[in-house]
Amino acid sequence: MEAISPPSFRRVLLKVSGEALMGSQRFGIDPTTLSALAEEIVSVYHLGVQIGIVIGGGNIFRGIQAAVQGIDKVVGDYMGMLATVINGLALQNAIEARGVPTRLQTAIAMAQIAEPFIRRRAIRHLEKGRIVIFAAGTGSPYFTTDTAAALRAIEIGAEIILKGTRVDGVYDADPEKVVAARRYERISSREVLEKGLKVMDLTAITLCQEHRLPILVFNINERGNLMRLMRGEPVATIVHHEG
Ligand code: UDP
User: Fold this and answer.
1) pTM metric for this prediction
2) What is the Cα 160 distance to its own chain's centre?
3) Distances (CA, A) of 172 to 15, 118, 169, 235, 241
4) Closest C-alpha to ligand 1, atom 11
5) Residue 222's CATH number
6) Which residues line ligand 1 (CB under 6 A)?
7) Is residue 2, in this structure, part of any structural domain at all?
8) Number of folded domains in the chain?
9) Which among 20, 70, 24, 11 has a CA at the least distance from the CA of 40?
């Protein structure tokens, strides 16, 4: 089992779902929520932690899903990936407004607005003190931004994935539906897979397992949680890889 000492992270990969930008809206970006999130990311940055961010697109994508109905699955997936680029631009803007340099890298080339994803360049940016935002998922349909998070985390040599969700960890049942659902403080990826718990999709979990990359699952909607994680406070479930 890995020994995790949260306050001493050197490089992390933060997964921000599109929904984390919605606030109380049904879709889209809520400016107050976006600002608060950027503020927190900047606080962690000032601790000296190198931060890569994979941004999702659910907040925009689900808003256009009605329009997507009847559209080819692959085309819909590309629309989803483009949605993550919109969120990436918004997050980049909100972070830079706080004086922190960033780079946006996309898995689908769009030279006018972002750099293409180049692993070595991303690492160089991190070393130079820039926050790197990865958008457009993996660049391929049939994947999710959770898988993109696992992939980018491994590629940039992050020590951990900080997976922001709507709940404060991994439960044995859906806590939004089952009142008696029990929260795990620690759980192995093997158990996650055996029990079919919804932490990340299968591809993402398997990738993390293969590369022994731990995941901290935390509630990103509760302000201050990112800093609490850095202080080692128990506000997350850790998914580890035993054996
Ligand atoms: N997507 C994709 N390939 C990827 C990442 C994302 O095709 O590598 C598409 C997929 O349709 C997905 C959408 O983009 O539903 C938005 O991503 P996701 O649902 O993972 O965003 P989140 O739920 O984190 O906001």
Assistant:
1) 0.95
2) 11
3) 22, 38, 10, 17, 18
4) 77
5) 3.40.1160.10
6) 17-19, 56-58, 61, 76-77, 80-81, 83-84, 137-138, 140-141, 143-146, 148
7) no
8) 1
9) 20
